[in-house]
Amino acid sequence: MTVDLDSARSTEKDIDELRAIAEAGAAELGPDAGAAELLRWTAQTFGTEFIIAANMQDAVLIDVADKAITDKDTVGGRLKALFLDTGYHFAETLGTRDAVTSVYDLELLNVTPEQTVEQQDELVGRNLFASDPGECCRLRKVVPLKASLAPYRAWVTGIRRVEAPTRANAPLISFDEGFGLVKINPLAAWTDEEFQEYIDANGVLVNPLVDEGYPSIGCEPCTVKPKAGEDPRSGRWAGRTKTECGLHAS
Question: Where is the Phosphoadenosine phosphosulphate reductase domain (predicted)?
């Protein structure tokens, strides 16, 4: 095997530069920066080289970004958003995706895994989500996301610290070691009350499953309604110790 040393050095240099940008941005904006301020910094810093991750549980992050980034020329004319279409989503989630793209002027990247569900069933056996949910998430989420993020220098997510203990220390700006780019979490500090107030005040689109009792929505085979009083994410991979799909491990 021949190693391209020039390419390796270039990649290492790019990573060092992105780490420095993340560190400088975090220091400049500070720990109390608002969501709009973070998004404007993202647009000014990365221009067309960032993308917004949208899970289509709601359109809050997209709405905040649309209002904050008023000069769309800086981002190439339209916001870029990414949706992981795993092949296992609820019909309501796909419907929310379609509704969001009709309301906002987005360039939506609908990311699909290398194999369809049927092809994966033939390759590794039926219902991998039941026998090995971690591997199913890797194949249908982590691998395609990593490939889709490769052209970008930063990604923006809607994760919030109150959502789970694994997200309690989520920074506003950091270098994502797993995907090799800068990660911005503009809503990280938002409480549930602030989140709902924003939805109500701005009439933001929300997946209808939320009103049906699903506070955290993933793939249909791995998502159930939590019982009254249970943790909101207890309906994800219910009965297992798994709490994250691997996208936000860093």
Answer: 53-224
